[in-house]
């Protein structure tokens, strides 16, 4: 039922898109509406599917090819259900990026190899290689180690794993992981940790082992006695204290590093804030300086005008003062003459008066 509904909805949407295309073709014949993105595109951006009459925009075709390659589909048909149109790499090459074109070609090659009946294939079991390897008939079934021509490491073609040195293929395929580890540990005499039961392999050094769980024991005698426990405890105590000391130093460094980072961050923020405030202060000081210079120029201009006016008035005053001084001198000169005449008359009268007596 859901499939029928989806088909009906697709038919309705297709008819609506065709009607919109017809309307748009009547309005602007140089554009079309892509059935994928339902956007108006120029005809130069269209791409026709090989073997049918359907066409879409370049970008939608590229995205459609990428989605099919992600689903491991190499034979890509027309997006319209039931249509016999087909997309192939050579036909799509003008619009495909080089990376997608190469990926499509590699997928086609792998599909041919995987579908071959005469050759056998496998992938290199090492994750950092994973190259596709092809073997002739019989080579894959041979019970011997083969070498990957890419990473030059040994592998087992029959089991499709890295080469198992301690077992043949029949034993390896019968064993699971736990059984294989047990057989290998028994053969190499690996002891187990008394606490966590993990197998331990000694690479070098003395027989005193410390497991990753923290348990200490002797490599040759994992089930040691009470005195061995005391001895190992006494030996491990300085190590434990040293570990505590190292851990304390690490945590202290981390703590001080956090404080240092926080302090530097605060200093940086304070510096940024100080620079901002300094810029604002300098801007205001510059504006005040400009205003002061303007006011000073106006004051000096007014002072110069007042000085010129004062000098003019002073010259006029001095001129008027010199005229008045001349008049005063003339007046004093006349008064002096009159005064001397009056004195002379007065002295004459005195003399006459003295002679009369």
Automatic annotation (TrEMBL):
EC number in record: 2.3.2.31
Record keywords: Metal-binding, Repeat, Transferase, Ubl conjugation pathway, Zinc, Zinc-finger
UniProt cross-references to SUPFAM superfamilies, sorted A to Z: RING/U-box (SSF57850)
GO CC field: cytoplasm; ubiquitin ligase complex
Gene3D superfamilies linked: 1.20.120.1750, Zinc/RING finger domain, C3HC4 (zinc finger)
Pathway assigned to this chain's UniProt record: Protein modification; protein ubiquitination
Domain annotation RING-type: ranges: 30-240, 34-80
Transmembrane segments: none
UniProt-listed GO biological process terms: protein ubiquitination; ubiquitin-dependent protein catabolic process
Cofactor(s) it depends on: Zn(2+)
GO MF entries: ubiquitin conjugating enzyme binding; ubiquitin protein ligase activity; zinc ion binding
Any Pfam family: IBR
Catalytic activity reported: [E2 ubiquitin-conjugating enzyme]-S-ubiquitinyl-L-cysteine + [acceptor protein]-L-lysine = [E2 ubiquitin-conjugating enzyme]-L-cysteine + [acceptor protein]-N(6)-ubiquitinyl-L-lysine
PANTHER family for this protein: RBR FAMILY RING FINGER AND IBR DOMAIN-CONTAINING
Family that this chain belongs to: Belongs to the RBR family. Ariadne subfamily.
General function of this protein: Might act as an E3 ubiquitin-protein ligase, or as part of E3 complex, which accepts ubiquitin from specific E2 ubiquitin-conjugating enzymes and then transfers it to substrates.
Record's protein name: RBR-type E3 ubiquitin transferase
């Amino acid at each position: 039922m859901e499939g029928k509904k989806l088909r009906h909805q697709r038919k309705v949407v297709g008819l609506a898109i065709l009607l919109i295309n017809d309307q748009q073709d009547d309005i602007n014949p140089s554009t079309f509406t892509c059935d994928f993105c339902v956007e108006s595109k120029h005809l130069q951006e269209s791409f026709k599917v090989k073997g049918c009459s359907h066409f879409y925009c370049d970008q939608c075709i590229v995205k459609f090819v990428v989605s099919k390659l992600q689903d491991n589909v190499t034979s890509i048909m027309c997006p319209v259900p039931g249509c016999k149109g087909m997309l192939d790499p050579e036909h799509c090459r003008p619009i495909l990026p080089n990376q997608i074109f190469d990926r499509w070609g590699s997928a086609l090659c792998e599909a041919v190899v995987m579908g071959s009946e005469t050759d056998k294939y496998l992938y290199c079991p090492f994750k950092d290689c994973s190259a596709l390897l092809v073997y002739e008939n019989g080579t894959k079934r041979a019970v011997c180690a083969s070498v990957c021509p890419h990473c030059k490491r040994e592998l087992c073609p029959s089991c499709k794993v890295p080469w198992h040195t301690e077992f043949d293929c029949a034993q390896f395929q019968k064993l699971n992981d736990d059984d294989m580890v047990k057989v290998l540990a028994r053969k190499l005499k690996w002891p187990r940790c008394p606490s966590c039961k993990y197998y331990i392999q000694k690479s070098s050094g003395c027989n005193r082992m410390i497991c990753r769980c923290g348990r200490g024991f002797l490599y040759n005698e994992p089930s040691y006695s009470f005195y061995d426990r005391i001895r190992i405890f006494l030996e491990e105590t300085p190590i434990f204290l040293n570990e505590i000391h190292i851990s304390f130093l690490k945590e202290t460094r981390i703590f001080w590093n956090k404080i240092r980072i926080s302090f530097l961050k605060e200093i940086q923020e304070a510096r940024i804030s100080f620079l901002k405030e300094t810029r604002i202060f300098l801007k205001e000081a510059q504006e005040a300086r400009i205003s002061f210079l303007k006011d000073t120029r106006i004051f000096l201009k007014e002072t110069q005008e007042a000085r010129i006016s004062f000098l003019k008035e002073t010259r006029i005053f001095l001129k008027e003062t010199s005229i008045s001084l001349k008049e005063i001198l003339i007046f004093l000169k006349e008064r002096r003459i009159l005064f001397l005449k009056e004195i002379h008359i007065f002295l004459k009268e005195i003399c006459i008066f003295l002679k009369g007596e």
